[in-house]
Structures
1.
Amino acid sequence: MIPGVNPKQMKQMMKKLGMKMDTIEDVERVVVYTKSGNYVFDNAEVVATVMQGMTTYQINGEPRFEEAEAVIPEDDVKLVAEQAGVSEDEAKAALTEAKGDIAEAILKLSE
């Protein structure tokens, strides 16, 4: 809150402005999904603020980042297996380790 302002006065001011704040109880986990990975907030505090008909959510907590796994197309697996002369399972494992980079996977398998 704002220093020096009575919480009761703050609620009255917010009501005059048409604002409403609610803490969402019993939040176990919040996950923000991105292409590069996910931000996971365990036991986060979530506050929903409604102002002029629009709801905004604030997440308070310490996130941990979980890197996204590369999606490996089947055509890439077949190409790497053919070029490196290995099974598709080995090719897929190499592609996963190389995060989908075909050239790197072939080089690793050719060593």
2.
Amino acid sequence: MKDIHKKSVLYIILSAVLLSTGGVLLKYVDLKPMEIAGARAIVSSIVVFAYVKKPKFTFSKAQVAGAISYSMMVIGFIAANKLTTAANAIVLQYTAPIWVAILSYFILKEKIHYYDVMSIVFIIVGMVLVFFDDVGGGNIKGDIIAIISGIFLAIVTISLRFQKDESPVETTLLGHLLTAFIGIFFLWGVHFSLTDLIGILLLGIFQLGISYILYSEAIKHVNAIEASVLMFIEPILNPVWVYLAFGEKPGSLALIGCLIVLATILVRSVIASRANRQDIIN
């Protein structure tokens, strides 16, 4: 049992590291966001389909909503990376847990706790600092798209809660296929350089395909708080790779804002996990 847990922890770490390469790989690919999204989705669809082998699509409201939101999330993340810094893009997308708390209140009728309210306040402060830093720098559009991408990620999470007795992999696969279908219309006549092709293959196979397969297998044997803490490797490493490769770094205010957002999400995850554990004991 301990060996399974150790292997699962390793899988999540590998998943987070693979996902963190998204920012730097997207910078290398000299294509428009929709062209990248479509090409990457074709590759990732093949990878995930090969893993699932016999997918079961129910086309329930939850699965369709999750697939559409997943597609919008990955497209938005690519666009954000092209318009703003990698740090801003990944950190602002990582506001998703807060949007989950808000949407859960209205959709799932779940209670919003004090730590959710406090987290929302601190995250707003962090986002305001990011926006102030980017005003006049041309990055604010990318920041807004990154936040919207985080909202779609939250909707994906909500939709998967409705499918707890089904396989969530099919929802993400459907999202990949939808993104590929949309992207095909933008790929007509596009010229791919060798660097573009290598970047697309790496993004589709490793950064998106294999990373989600590893995570879906690992989450069965790792509790939520441990998984969420380990996944923070992604938003930490993402801008590091981009800085090392391109020298890109956020401004001082944006950096402080990003750190506030990351710290808030991490602290909220720990408090929420302890609160849930206490409820189970009681």
3.
Amino acid sequence: MLIRIVAMKRAISLRIAAMTLALVAMLLTACDHRTIYDRYESTALSGWEKNDTITFAIRPLKEAAAYRALLGVRTTDSYPFTSLTLIVEQEIMPAHRVLVDTICCELTDEQGKVLGDGIGYRQYQFEVRQLQLQEGDSLHVVVRHDMKREILPGICDVGIKLLKE
């Protein structure tokens, strides 16, 4: 009986050690040191109104480098169009330099095939621009849609990702 209890404790200890090792390995391989910022904000359930803006505040950067800004969009099947036009306004602080980009987001190809990933929600990512930022610079990013329709249904989330090149 005592030998059986010792064997069970050893087996449990080995399983815990194996799970811990697997978790550490996953965490180490999942880290992307190039990603500085990656955040999504939700739009209103009733639809994204033309005068609603989505804002992101990126803290002061630790080092000067070239950075790449990406725009993320998540849609549902209720989005009625094949493309989406978004205005991305980035203010670089403390210089108060403002950069404005109009991003034409193609959501389907010429045959109508969806270009995004996912089933219930479709996720897209679009290049905004490359930025040369200095140590201590921070960004205030504002995103709004530039579609003729006042309220856009089917846009769930909008995000900004900043990668160090």
4.
Amino acid sequence: MSTRILVVAHNHPDFHPGGTEIFAHDLFGAYKRAGAEALFVGATNRIHREPRPGTSFQAVGDAGDEVVLWAGHFDRFMMSQTDLYGVIQDLKELLCEFRPDIVHIHHMLLVGAEFPALVRRILPDALIVMTLHDYYPICAHDGLMVKTGAYERCGKADPSRCNGCFPDIAPDRFLLRELNIKTHMRAVDRFISPSQFLKDRYVGWGIDEDRISVVRNGRPAAHPVPARKSADGQRNVFGYFGNLNPWKGAPVLLKACRYLMEAEIDFELRIHGGAPFQSENFTDELEALLKDTEGCVTWHGAYGRGDVAALMAGVDWAVLPSIWWENAPLVIQEAQLHGRPMIVSGIGGMAEMVTDEETGLHVRPNDPFDLARIMRRCILEDRLWDRLARNIAPPPDIDDVAAAHLELFGDLREAAAAETAA
């Protein structure tokens, strides 16, 4: 009898193609190819799909093993699912009907911090694992670990510091939030972190180091596109991939481009990605910077997953100047898959995934002068691109990553069985 795996994410990539959703869905497919019976549940809300009467669950296309859970009633601060008579009851019925051997949670947004405890109560013998993709349980500022009102990274969350970011919320509320989330996370048998940096952050927050395993994310196998053909041999076309928001560093990149233009450096930047759900202040700043860099910068808008290879074919370098501690950005693995050296902020998981001066280049975060300096070097330094590109290894194959997960699950289940027998 095949292993049953319930994969839970905070959306479906058809509605919100973020890195977590894409990876969770790719891993779900790899589980099935490995012989598991898997069901994918993506929690969503009115932003992406309207509720439908009768049940919290809605089908996704014709697939019988992929559904979305409409979970619009959610306490974002406490990360708590408040719909006790709708969503919670429907989740209970799902668990009782599908009866998974393994529940793999990729996020607690919308589904609720209580979900692991609910699984443990309904299915006491099920293995519960949770991949930590970001800092939402730690940080109430959308899991960014960046202070509100500024672009200063925050090294630690505690009630008094959090109250400094949110003066209208008393410190004891932050303490209650932390205790509530940690209490429900005790039901998780093992946490998985795609980076050592993220693991260290959660260990510092109070999760036992032995409960977190580092397993790198992976990508589906694909043929890499060839290097861009250049008549003059210059490697001066840069690409930005992903949604545009203040934390991904798009304004920093555009300011760096403005400095290059002032220095009369010949280059091109192609921006691929949309800017959904952003503030008017941000979009106004973006429009002004795009106007200032017109002629060298082109914003091509949102793209689909199937477009990545063709878009990568048109650039020499991929740039990710994020100002927050990214964990395992999808764009880095996409660039590595196609042999494109990356310019990244030298912090967090980005610094782990891109080795400075070996497979890419690091820049100081939120520093357009330093980014412009590095971009200028990329254009003018002879053979730099060739040296870095030669060292780039493709990311782990998603089927190998699934095999590593399944091996870990098997070890955990054997250990639990041995403990019960003893």
